[in-house]
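Entry for the shared binder. Reason: the reviewer on the internal report wants the predicted structure included alongside the sequence.
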Amino acid sequence: MTDIWGLAAAEVRSDTHYLRGSGTFPYLLALHKAEGESVRSVTFVCSRERLREIARSVSEHELPARPVISDDPGGGDGLIVQLSEGEIFRFLSDTSEVAPIEGRDLPVKLTHIVFNAVDAEGSGTLAETALGFKVSDRTKGMVFVRCNASHHSTAFARAGISSLNHIAFEMNDLDAVMRGIGRLRDHGLAPAWGPGRHGPGDNAFAYFIAPFGPVVEFSTAVEIVPSDYKTGSPEDWTWPEGRIDQWGMSDKDVAGLRLAEERFRFVRAWEQVLLA
């Protein structure tokens, strides 16, 4: 993830390695040594006022939630919430930032994280009602959800299972995405899908299956949408036969991606969440 993918080492604390990008977040990805493959949590940074709103709404919807004080780089405190299919969202306020660093091929930040769901519609609705997110678009495959002006910060795939679908890193521009593809090809890692350009979000992409298991994406230029953005339906996002993105220039390793998307499940028991 550092020498080939392009992230920069941030810190090592105990058995956890923190990796950062070129932006001001102290880390983008934390890799924790564990017995099995699982997702510890996904962290959102928000204001203190927004945190209070989430806490009230989560309580009203009777979702499992506990206060949390972060001991990760950047600190902060807030709330850890478990959604209906086990997704672990952590909301932190009063976090600190770091100075940006040079590196034209470093990812800038995490742009979105997508989950597989048994009931993607239910998960999208819960994100709206309990967390104050907004559904941006619905397709045959996914429910896209945003928490700011970016078209989607997360999404729920209609997969029939509950697991991590993929994590996406925002690159500076399309050239940075393409250089990333070339760099991985130099090391024998061809994209599982891409390069291409999505419909919902309009972002350029390239997906890879990381050697340690999950699906990771280079992405850039996710659409910035207005507050009154009209929520799209599956009928709004159709392609000519044989095409699955705007460009239609790349094959997709459907079977390989599916196996990788099934590997990383969520820590189910609430007591385990607290220990993680």
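Summary line for the report: DSSP finds five helices and 17 strands in the chain.
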